[in-house]
Amino acid sequence: MTDYFALLDQPRAPWLDPAALKDAYHRKTLQTHPDTATADRADDFAELNQAYQVLQNPKRRLHHLLLLENCAPPPANQTIPQELQELFLLIGALSQRADVLLEKIRTTSNALGRSLLKPQAVEMQSEVGDLREKVGKLFDAATGQLREINSDWQNDPAALATLSNLYFQFAYLGRWSAQLDELAFQLVSPL
Asked: How far apart are CA 143 and CA 18, in angstroms?
């Protein structure tokens, strides 16, 4: 397996400075871009792109780091982290209510009926916005945790378990963020 940290001259760490990562990526790709490099170097360009895509995303970076450190991916049977369970229930309940409302809006054939449903949609948009904000704050907090443990994670025996937990937090938060973005879009578009 290719070590993407080494490929982009980055320290093998849970948190990377986004500007430094981007600079390293641009420097390396200038040397291997298919328009300027020889054919044998052009193959490296795709691998550099893949490395950058992995390292700029906290979830994917942690997955790669855990693979390099453990030689195995994080366990797939992980339950939702304790600190996210309440949010999971809130998002699930909101999604179910939104599905019902969106179905009502779709099946309502006249403008008057849809306009009567608009206050419910506006209220639900507000709830979606609140949950999106909550997910964003949790994502920022998880990123902060990465920064905190970044300097001495290799000296801490419990660090791999902490990183694995953070990996799952980023996985759930990313999935929920996309789900809430889609829900916000659906609630705006039919009205």
From this structure: 12
